[in-house]
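Figure 3 (text version): structure tokens given as input.
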């Protein structure tokens, strides 16, 4: 093996260790009873392992509610982004209409604006619509995102327009072209968009926190925050809950990792 390859592998292994260490630390703390009592790493490692934290979290009254709420919100928003972002991206890529350049510029402009800036006006809007403590506040504002539009738009631009022209010759309308050509051909980037959207909404904390104040609509990240006390932090149960919350995301990445890589690089390889 060449020296250059050996150095590359060493660097990759080092980076992998750095990236995996937070997950290792999370799992380690979740398997310890009152891990905050240990003053050094050696005592923590040598102490007894237990699944008691996991059983406590799973048997808590509200954890299943938080989990289901996060699942509902993430799935609903993901479906909305796939449909609406693809339709908008196709319109921008293939159709000519009044104000198209202004709309495209506004999408790029919104990408630059941090989401926290719209927190207060969006909260006032939710109050005026009487959507506080409802699923509407957790889903409707996020059904379409500028990033999703921009991501799919760049991919659609790489699709040969001859495919659509051939379909038009055969009598296909715009809706048939979109759902029978654009969606199937755009599968790699749609999977990437779905994973990123699901991940973003599954881990979302700020807006679910300010839009809900009851157990029935609280999502998992907000529920986990209640393990943080004013005087102390229940590290064992907090890390156990975080470990359980990470399972759906890990499963998605394991199943769709090839599609994610393909979708991320395909737009760069096509011209």
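Below: residues designed for each position.
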């Amino acid at each position: 093996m060449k020296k250059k390859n050996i150095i590359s592998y060493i660097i990759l292994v080092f980076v992998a260790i750095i990236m995996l260490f937070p997950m290792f630390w999370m799992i380690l703390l979740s398997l310890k009873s009152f891990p905050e009592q240990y003053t050094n790493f050696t005592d923590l490692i040598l102490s007894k392992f237990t699944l008691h934290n996991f059983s406590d979290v799973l048997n808590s009254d509200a954890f299943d509610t938080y989990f289901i709420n996060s699942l509902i919100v993430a799935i609903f928003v993901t479906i909305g982004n796939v449909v609406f972002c693809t339709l908008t991206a196709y319109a921008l890529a293939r159709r000519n209409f009044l104000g198209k350049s202004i709309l495209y510029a506004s999408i790029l402009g919104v990408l630059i604006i941090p989401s926290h800036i719209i927190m207060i006006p969006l909260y006032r809007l939710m109050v005026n619509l009487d959507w506080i403590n409802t699923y509407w506040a957790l889903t409707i504002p996020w059904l379409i995102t500028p990033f999703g539009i921009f991501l799919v738009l760049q991919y659609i631009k790489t699709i040969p327009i001859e495919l659509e022209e051939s379909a038009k010759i055969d009598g296909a309308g715009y809706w048939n072209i979109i759902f029978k050509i654009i969606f199937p051909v755009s599968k790699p980037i749609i999977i990437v968009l779905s994973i990123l959207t699901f991940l973003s909404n599954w881990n979302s904390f700020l807006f679910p926190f300010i839009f809900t104040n009851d157990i029935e609509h609280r999502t998992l990240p907000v529920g986990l925050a209640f393990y943080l006390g004013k005087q102390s932090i229940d590290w064992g149960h907090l890390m156990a809950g975080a470990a359980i919350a990470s399972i759906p995301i890990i499963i998605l990445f394991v199943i769709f990792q090839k599609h994610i890589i393909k979708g991320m690089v395909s737009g760069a390889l096509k011209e």
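The chain has one domain: 59-269.
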